[in-house]
């Protein structure tokens, strides 16, 4: 009985630790913090990832690419309203990270789009992802999988209630 209780406690501790944010990651003048992805419904081919990037330097940088063994393609995307239509598009030249500024990739805005995902992200898992910056280089970041409604006001998906979604690959 004690062995079973200890195993259950260890399992619960492991699960709870997966929800805690890892320490900030430093890469040159950049600090990468609070990464997470949303859990996906079965059969969904795409997932969204979010992170905060602070550039403490005096030189601009740019998030130019991302990759993950969990997705065939990973792109840097932007969501925004355009004449009452939610537009989502890839940023093929990447996302600027201005000197002395913080850029948040968050629901309803900039995000990492995991595409052609073979196995849906499940809450409690971690999605290993490599972020590539123009000047600072590349770094591996563990994105914990949170709930499907993580950081969304009212628990819904931003821009998905009564709003048409349009995809565009035009550069901003």
Can you describe this structure?
With 172 residues, this protein is mainly beta. The chain contains one helix and twelve strands. It has one helix at 2-19; strands spanning 25-27, 30-38, 46-55, 61-67, 71-82, 85-90, 95-97, 102-105, 111-117, 126-133, 137-146, 165-168. Strands 1, 2, 3, 4, 5, 6, 7, 8, 9, 10, 11 and 12 form a twelve-stranded mixed beta sheet that branches. β5 (71-82) and β6 form a beta hairpin. The longest helix is centred in the N-terminal third of the chain and has 18 residues, at 2-19. The termini are far apart.
List the helices and strands and how they pair.
Layout: H1 2-19, E1 25-27, E2 30-38, E3 46-55, E4 61-67, E5 71-82, E6 85-90, E7 95-97, E8 102-105, E9 111-117, E10 126-133, E11 137-146, E12 165-168
How much helix is in the residues? 10-25%
- The SSE order reads HEEEEEEEEEEEE
Shape: globular
Number of strands: 12
Summary of the model, kept short:
The protein is globular.
């Amino acid at each position: 009985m004690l062995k079973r209780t200890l195993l259950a406690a260890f399992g619960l501790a492991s699960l709870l630790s997966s929800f805690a944010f890892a320490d900030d990651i430093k890469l040159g003048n950049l600090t990468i913090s609070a990464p997470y992805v949303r859990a996906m419904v079965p059969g969904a081919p795409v997932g969204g990832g979010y992170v905060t990037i602070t550039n403490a330097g005096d030189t601009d940088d740019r998030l130019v690419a991302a990759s993950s063994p969990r997705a065939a393609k990973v792109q840097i995307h932007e969501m925004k309203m355009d004449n009452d239509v939610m537009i989502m598009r890839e940023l093929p030249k990447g996302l600027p990270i201005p000197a002395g500024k913080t850029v948040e990739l968050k629901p309803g805005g900039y995000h990492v789009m995991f595409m052609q995902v073979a196995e849906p992200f499940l809450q409690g898992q971690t999605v290993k992802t490599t972020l590539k910056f123009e000047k600072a280089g590349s770094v591996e970041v563990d994105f914990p999988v949170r709930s499907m409604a993580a950081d969304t006001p009212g628990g819904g998906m931003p821009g998905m209630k009564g709003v048409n979604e349009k995809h565009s690959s035009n550069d901003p």
